[in-house]
Amino acid sequence: MGMGSVFVGFFSMMSLLLMSFPIAVIMVLLGVVGGVVLYGWPLLNSMGPVIWGVQNENILTAIPLFVLLGELLLRSGIADRMYGALSLWLGRLPGGLLHTNIGCCSLFAATSGSSVATAATVGTVALPALKSRGYGARQSLGSLAAGGTLGILIPPAIIFAVVMGSIYFGIATPTESAALGVVTALLFAWREGKLSLEFFDHCFRQTAKTTGMILLIITAAFMLNVTLALGGIAQTMTEWVASFGLSPAGLLMALIVFYLFLGMFMDVLSMQVLTIPVALPIVTAVGIDPIWFGIFIVLMCELGMITPPVGMNLYVVQGVRRDGGPFRDVVYGAIPYALIMILFTILLIEVPEIVLWLPESMSGR
Hints:
This protein is mainly alpha-helical. It is about 80% helix and about 0% strand. The chain has a domain at about 60-205.
């Protein structure tokens, strides 16, 4: 497949996005229609085993468990108490409640693993306190939208030991550690007196909805990847990018611009499942460490959460405010944090050891 076909597929995808088609539907359409055009109807026979294999992958059991973990901690009232405690510690600093927003988002993101849940929950708690103390709308809203992006970077954990500790020390697999985390979260909810049939009903329903959405996108992405693999898209893109003679740093700077653009139209999961299969062979071909690139992708997806017009955290924070102010307040307030993320990414490009030191220490390299 030539680059002309690749660009046609890409712009078709962007056109469908602008028409508000769900991303899973777009990936299935491109995968099936593109595959049939290139290889005929027998291609569909190749997609059946792929779908079956994806849905029967044991490791995917961790997804509903981690989602349930976040829901249990979200609904047990931990966020309110967390914000109150941090405001006592940080409230006396200049701009104290803004520091509290970031700190609380960091800790709550570590319990929920969801940027949207973090921005919505902490925003609901924080905005009344910020308004009563005279903080500007743009400062307040921007710190909440940016702080919520930490939900992608920090894994779901409580004080971090049960989930990550069990994995790090080889006690449990990721799926087993997720189950341990759920049990621990249930103990916390029980201690808070939150356990009830209504509590479980809400947590389980939300978990089912979120898990269904995630698995639908993953399945659609694998269907698209069948066409991409058979068409040799990764190889075509690698050769095309190599023809420009970019250095690793130059390639990464180009990818920053690309993800900034993509983040204006796609949510985080969609960006990840669509771009990683194509981008990973390209960056590894120029000698970029795949672990480092994984962190780069996470940062770029975080950035996409606060870039208009489809920066999801911007809409979430705007939705929880009660003063009826304009949406541009959130956008302008988030711009400084977006610039900080870009500068931090450039720092990681210049000093990759910031990312690689810990995994290299863990692996004994």
